[in-house]
Amino acid sequence: MPSDRLRSVARPVRGRAVGTGRDIRRRLQAYLIVAVQAGLAAALSWFVAREVLGNPEPTFAPAAAVGVIAAALGNRARRTIELVLGVVLGITVGDLLILLVGTGPWQTAAIVFLAVSAAAAVRGTGALMTQAGGTAVLIATLTPTAPGLELPRTINALVGGVVGMFVVLVLAPLNPLRTVRRVAGPALDLFSRQITAAAEALARGDARRAEEVLDRMRETNAELARVDEAINAAHEVVRLSPVRWRGRRRLAAYRLGTEHMDRAFRNSRTLVRRIGTTLRSGENVPADLPAAVELFGEAVRLLHREFLAAKEPVQARERVLAAVRHAGAACRQDIGFSGTIVVAQLRTVANDLLRATGVSHGEARRLVRQAARPQPGAA
């Protein structure tokens, strides 16, 4: 008995540990290139600032370069501009106030307050305000003991920003399509597994399991955020990096598909919520209804595979329309109010999935309406 209890306690702990390890491995695979870029940018910016420009204190150059690399993926160009502008703003405000009020604790507070306020006034982001405030602190506290700090710091900021962008766009740019697929893959796999689990709960009349699926779907915001981040980073690379210009067209299609997949995922939460309501209400569930939900899960899996193989997602479209046909058949049977809403939500998600496969808005609506009609020869 004690050993059985220990096993029952250890099983979920082991499952969470395996899931955490899998998540860490995926993140390392997806973002290892960022670590490589940061190391290259730090070394190269230090060399340029110290050996090429003769700056005896080049510390801020690699710090600025790493700051650019570590910025939110897809926002590095903007981060570079904000970094340099923040330094210049901090220096300007700091020098002006030191001339007027001198240095000291309250003067430092006033200088930082005005530098950050100036950054906020020009609608600067957190990065711009951080750089302006940090530079103002250095100017206010180090100017009496280290005059002439302004020009070296500005040059270092420029060196770090330029070198950071050179590394991410020319020297070691990420492979945009590979990065997107590597990050989107787990999200699509998670999506398909949850839809399949919802279909099983509907087929078995298990309302509690449907609620568990919905809870898991609510916890996937981090996965969706990583997909958006990877898409933005890939878009920045193919837009600015000459090395990756050839991937523009394929990434544009993938980006559009991912946007519609994101919408399909969010609409699927409403679908699963209604499945739970249907089961709790004890409504009749025709066999065609869980079959339709299961076909949606298959469509997502096929879409993932066809994206990875760079194929036209024909099979995914066929599964989506088959799901709509089953949902239509279920709606024409003895079905309750919540079940009818499940069918309507299935059609909404079907439209999203068809758009993700590259079908236009009007064509997707036409195909869904056509598939929902009674089929010739149907009873």
From TrEMBL:
Cross-referenced InterPro entries: Memb_transporter_dom
Domain Integral membrane bound transporter, first and last residues per copy: 45-167
Sequence intervals crossing the membrane: 30-48, 60-76, 83-102, 155-174
Record key words, sorted: Membrane, Transmembrane, Transmembrane helix
Pfam families from the UniProt entry: FUSC_2
Membrane topology: Multi-pass membrane protein
Keyword NAD (UniProt): no
Record's GO cellular component terms: membrane
Localization, UniProt: Membrane
Protein name (record): Fusaric acid resistance protein-like
